[in-house]
Structure formats: C-alpha cells, structure tokens
Amino acid sequence: MKLRTSVLCPPTSEQHGAAMNQLNIRNASKELNVLRYLKTYKPPFEVMGTYRLIDDGKQPEATVMLKAGDQEMHQADIGVGPVDALANVLKKSLGRLFPFLLDVRLLDFEVRLIHGAVGTSAQVEVSIVFSDGKEAWLVSSASDNINLASFQALLDGYEFAVWLRENGKGKPKSQAKKKSKTQV
Asked: How far out from the chain centre does Cα 99 lie?
C-alpha cells in the first residue's frame, strides 16, 4: 500500500493505521496508557512542576526539572526551535541516568488541528515517531498549547524508550528470561 500525503489531502486515519502496521511502528501512547493503569507500573521519571520556555525567535531555551528515583535534575538547553529546545533539555537531563536515550532519534513530527474553527487558539494534536535504531514507536498528545502538546509527547516518547529497554524490548522480564533459558 503506497500512501500519498499532501497539505490539502492528508492521509485518512485508516491509511495512517495501515502504514503504522506495515512499518511495525508501535503505538506507544496506547501502550503507556495501559501501563499507567496497572498498579505495578512505576514511571522511570517525573516532571517536577512543568517546563519553562524562552523563545526570542532566534535561539529558544528550555528549562526543566525532573526526578528519577532519588535524583533530581534541573537543566537548561537551547535549540533551533522551541520543540528542539524541549527535546534537547529532556535528552540532556535523562541521558545522565539513561545513557541509551542519547541514541533515540525523533524521526517524524506532525501537528494536526483538532478543532480548527477556533482559529489560533485551536486544540492541536502532536504526533512524534521515535526510534532507537531497532524499533520505532509513535506518541501523540493534544492541547490548546502546541508547546505543551509537544512537551508531553516528547516525555511519553522517552518514557516508552526507557520502558522498552528495562523490559527486554516490551516483553515482560519473566518471558525474556524463559526464552533465554530454553535457548541454552
């Protein structure tokens, strides 16, 4: 199935879903929603408060405070745009505790209007495709603030990357151990 995309005629949700299945792109937003519902799931990090973003139109700067276990981090970084600054500061903070995140790449970034009739205050959905070179996953977040939706999607993308690594690429640890014992 070949998809054609354009500004005037974006792919339908059915085409988008078919492309994700064909490319084996995991829907990390759905998986994280299920995990967060389980009492056994503990997020690998949390945001303390929210982010700060200074965008003078030339060199945006983002600041974030995160907590992972008993470690707290307060970092700032710059980017070529506000979303790049947010991605950079998250990677900088989280990369100290989870060095493999430095190899995670943002492959695609898309913004869609959810309710376009409201003008510039419209609610938007941000979708980001990430990859660690072995797997690819999609996260989505919605807000009436494009930077907040982007920040939430970035957080989910990095949280899913940590979950994949800590759980043997998405397989429960018990299954991963059983598999290695039967192969020996």
From this structure: 16
